[in-house]
Amino acid sequence: MLEVRNLSKRYPGRGGIENIRFSVDRGEIVGFLGPNGAGKTTTMRMITGYLSPTEGEVRVDGQLMTEHSSKTKTQIGYLPESPPLYPEMTVEDYLRFVADLREVPVREQKHRIADVLERTGITGRERQLIRRLSKGYKQRLGLAQAILHRPDLLILDEPTTGLDPKQITEIRELIRELGEKHTVLLSTHILPEVEMICKRVLIIDRGRLVEDDRPERLARRLEQGSTLSLEVKGKPEAVQEKLLSISGVKRVDVTDSPSKERVKLLVTVQNETDLRERIFYTLAEEKMPILEMQRRDLSLEDVFLKLTTSEGGSQADA
């Protein structure tokens, strides 16, 4: 559905986007992550045709953006970080205005507007002035305008900004529902949101794409082995020595020692080896009972921090 090939945007004397390549299949919901200034917004603006690339190309459903701009844009729904709203218009008038711009047939506009109002939770506020809406409702209205013309591809830049927890859950469910029939590229700083919605993650840093994979596969690759969190009854030095004697254990770190006869540890295990049963019997034979044992995998937040530089390391979105 979406193909981005060797996309670059260069600015004199400062950073930009360099050689971004990825594709998104129809029906995929893909998370697009990166620290502030990494180039997410610049990339999304080039995908939607709001910004021309220095090099490279964007294809939507096989159509080249630069050659079929008008037709291609009709297939895209875009919610920028700051929704494009007109504060002196009412909600209903604004959506009718957007429907006209998007060439939604007049006979379908009433039904389409009612549908997006209900899906985004704005029903009942049709006659309210946009300037009187809360930030959360403005964000909902921004999402409503993005899906009004039923696009094949949705580009969402921070869609849950300013929403309360209940609203975030509702919009998250809506995005998941939209992903059943649409292709979605979702940029957000809420990493648990990406883990819940997205099956695939793109990570950009300093204008370059540094990863493209499923979240769980990224975690496994970066871990270079799994980690177990243990709490054991026994002398810390003796427990650590016994664990290190087990084949397949790479490293043992003591994280806490509440007493001389009790210790908490992190045990790093080679590759995908499951040593939990062997660890249990080994320590049981030494009369070192395990009080707690949990497998500890890298979270998406851990992966993100490992792959990106500190915030502000790039000026790509400046």
TrEMBL record:
Coiled coil: none annotated. Gene3D superfamilies: P-loop containing nucleotide triphosphate hydrolases (3.40.50.300). The keyword Transport applies. Residues 2-231 form the ABC transporter domain. InterPro entries: AAA+_ATPase, ABC_transporter-like_ATP-bd, P-loop_NTPase. Pfam families: ABC_tran (PF00005). One of its GO terms (molecular function) is ATP hydrolysis activity. Keywords: ATP-binding, Nucleotide-binding, Transport. Belongs to the ABC transporter superfamily. This is ABC-2 type transport system ATP-binding protein. It comes from Melghirimyces profundicolus. The lineage of its organism: Bacteria, Bacillati, Bacillota, Bacilli, Bacillales.
